[in-house]
Amino acid sequence: MFLHFFNSILIISIVLAVLSLPISAVESSIQVWPKPRTFSWPQPQATLLSSTFSISAPNQTHIHLSSAIKRYLNLIQTENHIPLVPPILNFTTSTPPLQTLLVFVSDLTAPLHHNVNESYTLTIPTRGPANLTAETVWGAMRGLETFSQLVWGDPLRVAVGLYIWDAPLFGHRGVMLDTSRNYYPVEDILRTIGAVSVNKMNVFHWHITDSHSFPLLVPSEPDLAAKGSYGPDMLYTPDDVNKIVQFGLDHGVRIIPEIDSPGQ
């Protein structure tokens, strides 16, 4: 009851705060989430996104970066997001459509670890290709998320004449899911990790086991899961764990497992 009351008060407060703003303050800019540390758009403009728009990382090969580029290109081309409050800006078809986003990463070998450099710079000029530069692959993923939020409409439009530099304030940004007290299917876990990624968080703390249940199938000790899980269809196999870890890496999210053995 208290939580419901608190949520209601919070929503009302947010609505009142937005309504109290001048119309120009609400409508004049595109909202990027989370708010970048540097956002420069001196003359809000937009142009069409080319029907042949592409994202490429010239001469740079990285399995997780390639996966992210493919994912974001598909998202950009299919979502056709319509903003709740359309931005007020100068839109003209005389500006050529944006054809390409070029991605450049300085260090392709940096692993995803605590306090890894996730900074990036995104420049979208009024003419020519857009450029995303990052120190690491993980920073490039944050920049791809930002770029995707700057595309909207049908036909697709993209903000131009824009410069963004961003870096997280905290090295650890994440959520925890307890699958001991409540079992969640693998697809639900993947969907949660995806949500963590689009919010530019980087940690999925997976509290796998506890005294309530032991859903992790350990091949060397199969009785732990056979006798400790809620049921034979509520287990995480080694293949499931590998799938979750790889999915996390593709989305720039570290999987931190927590295993209580035995839980008391």
From TrEMBL:
This is beta-N-acetylhexosaminidase. Gene3D superfamilies: Chitobiase/beta-hexosaminidase domain 2-like (3.30.379.10), Glycosidases (3.20.20.80). It holds the Pfam family Glyco_hydro_20. Belongs to the glycosyl hydrolase 20 family. It comes from the Eukaryota. It catalyses: Hydrolysis of terminal non-reducing N-acetyl-D-hexosamine residues in N-acetyl-beta-D-hexosaminides. Residues 1-25 form the signal peptide. Keywords: Glycoprotein, Glycosidase, Hydrolase, Signal. Its EC number is 3.2.1.52. GO terms for cellular component: membrane. Residues 170-263 form the Glycoside hydrolase family 20 catalytic domain. Residues 32-150 form the Beta-hexosaminidase eukaryotic type N-terminal domain. One of its GO terms (molecular function) is beta-N-acetylhexosaminidase activity. InterPro entries: Beta_hexosaminidase_sua/sub, GH, Glyco_hydro_20_cat, Hex-like_dom2, HEX_eukaryotic_N. SUPFAM superfamilies: (Trans)glycosidases, beta-N-acetylhexosaminidase-like domain. One of its GO terms (biological process) is carbohydrate metabolic process.
